[in-house]
């Protein structure tokens, strides 16, 4: 039997973790728009879902709803909040809830492995890492649910009941509709844990059986999705473990020129974990996060099965492809689980003599990191200034083309302004290309006959390739850019009529097609 702390003490620990997790969401609330690359596209998806029910939405014939998608839960959560608080605040609420839930879900697993749940405080600094800055909304929403699924599987292994059987099967399906990668990873880890923990194949197989409920769902989706050309993009293994190429923030260079996939698997581990550029800072903080429990007297759990989830995470980070099933940044996003799964494998608490000092150091480290990321969020908010002014100059319900040549931020490891113009679609009910609606896993997709020439996952990276005739410039009323200089002449160079500059503020530029240029019909 695992030793349980007294009820009053356990409640105090839970309250402390709840308060710290809530404070950890502060960087989400500081800027108007969270510094997350893909979030504008995800918000645009929710807005499109809402607009498709509006008879006045004149682009409705271009799109179709794809309910059979593993990106469903995150979108529906935001969609349900939009009528109450608007799309930006709804997005922030869902993101903040997902971030705050991760340390709590870590504590759930700790409760099953016998770990002191206060160590879950150390998982807070990793909330702002690779997946957060790239804006993998649905992955972040699914992450705490994946840890909760693991905790349930551990309890199921120890004491199976009708409730754990049914919950395991149901949650496996729910996980799929949160995110397919999370579902696959945690179902596999849970199955391995059950087999080796129970140690009797005749007993373990029935306990694994409920998770088979998700297999036909995954198979049906996989076969259906493989038909999409985007899903057929070549698998990229990216087995460069020691490369330190800083591919995410080099100004003035194309995606390919700046290193593409970024830092190596091992050399970039701590920068990806914490969401900062390589250097002394991530090294020191990373060593402290992993080292403080061990220095304070915690010891590795001798039950080797407890370490299976951590070992699976390490194997994923070292050997899983960088692009799989048409989805980029496959292994990198799993970095968020490395520290939580490491902490759940520890036993023991600081000695009474050192306990207060240790927890004071933990709280100081966590608080300092929250303050550091909050300051970065303030800087990011200043970099984004002027965009709202640009959007106010745009008529609602129009079609726009994004041409971002300066996508970087000084405080992020990801190109946080890459998809920023898609906020117009979310806020004003228009359409912005390149759009995630041209990809294979989204809730709202372009109909095959309506696919634009400028498609996501490619042309957002190369605005210099824009050509009026090739990319059907006459279809767009507006052109949005974040650039160091006026690109109007570049946009118009092959156009039958010039675009006019509507407004310019900071690095933001808004252009409008000459009204004498008659666009082609919307449906093709």
Notes on the structure:
The protein is of the alpha+beta class and 524 residues long. It has 19 helices and 11 strands. It folds into 2 domains: 69-377, no CATH class; 387-513, no CATH class. The chain has helices at 7-23, 26-29, 39-51, 72-85, 87-113, 130-133, 137-158, 162-178, 180-198, 201-208, 215-225, 269-274, 280-295, 308-319, 338-343, 355-383, 387-392, 422-428, 488-492, and strands at 63-65, 299-300, 323-324, 327-328, 346-347, 399-402, 431-433, 444-446, 478-482, 499-505, 508-513. A hairpin with a 2-residue loop joins strand 3 and strand 4 (327-328). It is globular and about 75 Å long. 46% of the residues are buried.
Can you lay out the helices and strands and say which pair or pack?
Elements: H1 7-23, H2 26-29, H3 39-51, E1 63-65, H4 72-85, H5 87-113, H6 130-133, H7 137-158, H8 162-178, H9 180-198, H10 201-208, H11 215-225, H12 269-274, H13 280-295, E2 299-300, H14 308-319, E3 323-324, E4 327-328, H15 338-343, E5 346-347, H16 355-383, H17 387-392, E6 399-402, H18 422-428, E7 431-433, E8 444-446, E9 478-482, H19 488-492, E10 499-505, E11 508-513
Parallel strand pairs: 6-7, 6-9
Antiparallel strand pairs: 1-8, 2-5, 3-4, 9-11, 10-11
Helix pairs in contact: 1-5, 3-4, 3-18, 4-5, 4-7, 5-7, 7-8, 7-9, 8-9, 9-10
């Amino acid at each position: 039997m695992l030793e349980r702390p007294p009820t009053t003490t356990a409640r105090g620990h839970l309250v402390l973790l709840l308060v710290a997790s809530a404070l950890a969401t502060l960087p989400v609330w500081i800027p108007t728009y969270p510094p997350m690359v893909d979030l504008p596209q995800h918000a645009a998806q929710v807005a499109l879902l809402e607009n498709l029910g509006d008879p006045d939405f004149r682009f409705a014939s271009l799109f179709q709803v794809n309910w059979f998608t593993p990106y469903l839960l995150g979108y529906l959560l935001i969609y349900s909040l939009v009528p109450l608080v608007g799309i930006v605040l709804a997005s922030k609420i869902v993101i903040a809830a997902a971030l705050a839930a991760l340390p709590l879900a870590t504590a759930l697993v700790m409760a099953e492995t016998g770990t002191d749940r206060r160590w879950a405080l150390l998982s807070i600094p990793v909330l702002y890492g690779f997946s957060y800055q790239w804006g993998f909304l649905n992955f972040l929403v699914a992450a705490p649910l994946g840890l909760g699924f693991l905790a349930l599987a551990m309890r199921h292994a120890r004491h199976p009941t009708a409730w754990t059987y049914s919950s395991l099967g149901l949650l496996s399906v729910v996980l799929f509709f949160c995110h397919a990668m999370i579902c696959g990873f945690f179902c596999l880890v849970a199955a391995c844990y059950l087999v080796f923990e129970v140690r009797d194949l005749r007993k373990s197989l029935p306990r694994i059986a409920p998770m088979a409920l998700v297999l036909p769902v995954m198979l049906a989706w996989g076969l259906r999705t493989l038909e999409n050309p985007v899903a057929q993009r070549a698998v990229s293994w990216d087995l460069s473990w020691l490369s330190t190429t800083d591919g995410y923030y080099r100004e003035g260079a194309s995606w390919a020129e700046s290193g593409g996939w970024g830092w190596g698997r091992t050399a970039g581990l701590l920068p990806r974990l914490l969401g900062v550029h390589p250097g002394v800072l991530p090294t020191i903080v990373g060593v402290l996060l992993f080292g403080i429990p061990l220095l304070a007297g915690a010891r590795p759990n001798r039950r080797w099965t407890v370490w299976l989830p951590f070992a699976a995470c390490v194997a994923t980070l070292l050997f899983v492809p960088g692009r799989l099933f048409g989805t980029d940044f496959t292994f990198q996003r799993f970095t968020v689980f490395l520290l939580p799964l490491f902490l759940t494998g520890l036993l023991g608490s600081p000695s009474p003599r050192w306990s207060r000092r240790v927890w004071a150091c933990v709280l100081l480290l966590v608080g300092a990191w929250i303050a550091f990321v909050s300051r970065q969020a303030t800087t990011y908010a200043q970099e984004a200034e002027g965009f709202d002014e640009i959007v106010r100059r745009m008529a609602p319900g129009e079609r726009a083309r994004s041409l971002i040549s300066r996508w970087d931020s000084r405080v992020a490891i990801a190109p946080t302004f890459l998809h920023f113009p898609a906020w117009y679609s979310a806020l004003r009910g228009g359409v912005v290309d390149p759009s995630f609606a041209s990809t294979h896993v989204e809730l709202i997709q372009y109909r095959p006959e309506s696919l634009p020439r400028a498609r996501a996952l490619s042309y957002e990276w190369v605005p210099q390739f824009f050509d009026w005739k090739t990319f059907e410039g006459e279809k767009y009323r507006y052109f949005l850019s974040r650039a160091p200089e006026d690109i109007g002449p570049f946009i118009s160079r092959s156009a039958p009529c010039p675009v006019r500059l509507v407004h310019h503020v900071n690095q933001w530029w808004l252009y409008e097609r000459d009204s004498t240029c008659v666009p082609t019909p919307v449906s093709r």
